[in-house]
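Minutes, project check-in

Agenda point 3 was the complex the collaborators sent over. CS summarized: two entities, 228 residues total, and the question is how they sit relative to each other. Sequences were read into the notes so everyone works from the same version.
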Amino acid sequence: DQQVKQNSPSLSVQEGRISILNCDYTNSMFDYFLWYKKYPAEGPTFLISISSIKDKNEDGRFTVFLNKSAKHLSLHIVPSQPGDSAVYFCAASAWVGNEKLTFGTGTRLTIIP
Amino acid sequence: DTGVSQDPRHKITKRGQNVTFRCDPISEHNRLYWYRQTLGQGPEFLTYFQNEAQLEKSRLLSDRFSAERPKGSFSTLEIQRTEQGDSAMYLCASSPTGTGTFGYTFGSGTRLTVV
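CS then shared the predicted structure for the full assembly.
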């Protein structure tokens, strides 16, 4: 039972353009959502998060949008840079202070110079 | 930099053997977590500690798995009688109290191959 889904295993984007990574979830108890970035041979690195009381959170080139009614979130990267090439994981937890994260299967983003 | 350290980075073992992995968290972090990542999947929660107390265990943590954090500092994850299905990346993470999931710092993982 995949509670957090990333339906695009891979995505290629031209450098300078916008990258949009999508994530869907099924568990209505999830209240906090996070994006992690992972390079080969390294552990995941926290990128940005959003709580269910917001519909948007921005940090530099990264913006996360949450549509709670659709149980959908997306990560926008603008402008995309070659260093953004990595695997991106969407993750969710039921409430802050709940220590367990449920991850999606990841999307491999490739930025084409 | 005193990030989360995991040892070994790679381990190849024969089916049926026991293996033990070590995780050294960031020194001021009192929460420590273990996750497992198999090929093509995201990390899956295994267990977590608050200091030396193991507070939650996943159903994924079968009887062959045991985790300890004896003095509230480093942690070990042992797998007994390894099976080929145990082949995965085992990730450790730590966080300070009060930050919950937002304060996670992951280590680089231990890749286990069972042959």
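Noted in discussion: The longest strand of chain A covers residues 86-93.
Follow-up: revisit at the next meeting once the mutant set is ready.
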